């Protein structure tokens, strides 16, 4: 039972961290008018699987 709770906690923290980073990167891209847009920013920051070209 404690193992399941640990997996659930780590999954939740992982999703929350990804969402927070994505939100921060989105605001940063809009603020500085990043060449290449959101797709390029996600590629640079290591979230290429979320990139939609």
Shape: elongated
Summarize the helix and strand pattern as letters.
Answer: HH
Look at the structure and give the mean pLDDT: 78
| Computed Rg | 14 Å
How many DSSP E strands?
0
Counting helices, strands and paired strands, the structural category is: mainly alpha
Percent of residues in helical segments? over 70%
Distance between the ends = 42 Å
The residue ranges in which pLDDT falls below 50 over 5 or more consecutive positions are none
Mind summarizing the main beta sheet? none
Portion of residues in beta strands equals under 5%
> What's the tally of helices?
2
Task: Outline the structure in words.
The chain is an all-alpha fold and 53 residues long. It is 74% helix and 0% strand. It has two helices and no strands. The chain has helices at 2-32, 37-44. Helix 1 (2-32) packs across helix 2. The longest helix has 31 residues, at 2-32. It is elongated and about 50 Å long. The chain starts with a helix and ends in a 9-residue tail after the last helix.
């Amino acid at each position: 039972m404690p193992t399941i709770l640990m997996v659930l906690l780590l999954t939740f923290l992982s999703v929350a961290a990804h969402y927070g980073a994505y939100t921060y990167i989105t605001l940063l891209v809009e603020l500085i008018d990043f060449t290449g847009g959101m797709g390029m920013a996600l590629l640079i920051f290591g979230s290429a699987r979320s990139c939609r070209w």
